[in-house]
């Protein structure tokens, strides 16, 4: 799988994935949370107040599609590509891993999981969250 190397801006994020922690960049000046990590806050422009906070690991699908023909060998179709809105306000594009890909729908609750990479890092993916409220 072709995954970018860590750099100065993404090192903390990738280190977090080694511990299976999803770290989101947070601005201490204005309270904005963003992903992916950047050199400045996309809300207020601050550059010196950026840190990281751990996501709680839940989300809601706000758009999704089932891929029936994979563009490469990294995924066996069918699989779900989804936009997942986290309660922290960030949207991640990821996979929802399930045995029933056609059952994933907008509004579904999902829970964070991890797809290991060969170098010890991991990619955040999601699983349907069937817990009763």
Automatic annotation (TrEMBL):
Q: Which InterPro entries match?
A: ChsH2_C, ChsH2_Znr, NA-bd_OB-fold, Thioester_dehydratase-like
Highest taxon of source? Bacteria
Annotated ChsH2 C-terminal OB-fold domain residues = 53-115
Question: Domain ChsH2 rubredoxin-like zinc ribbon: where?
Answer: 14-47
Q: TM segments?
A: none
Q: Give the matching Pfam families.
A: OB_ChsH2_C, zf-ChsH2
Signal peptide annotation:
none
Protein's name according to its UniProt entry: Zn-ribbon domain-containing OB-fold protein
| Organism annotation | Nocardioides hankookensis
């Amino acid at each position: 799988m072709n995954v970018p190397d860590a750099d100065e801006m993404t090192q903390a994020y990738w280190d977090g994935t080694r511990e299976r922690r999803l770290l989101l960049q947070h601005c201490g000046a204005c309270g904005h949370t963003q992903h992916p990590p950047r050199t400045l806050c996309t809300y207020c422009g601050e550059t010196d107040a950026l840190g990281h906070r751990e996501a709680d690991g839940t989300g809601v699908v706000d758009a999704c599609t089932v891929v029936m023909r994979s563009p490469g060998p990294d995924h066996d179709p069918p699989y779900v590509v989804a936009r997942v809105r986290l309660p922290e306000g960030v949207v991640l594009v990821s996979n929802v891993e399930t045995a029933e890909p056609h059952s994933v729908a907008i509004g579904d609750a999902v829970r964070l999981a991890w797809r290991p990479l060969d170098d010890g890092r991991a990619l955040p993916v999601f699983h349907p969250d069937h817990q009763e409220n």
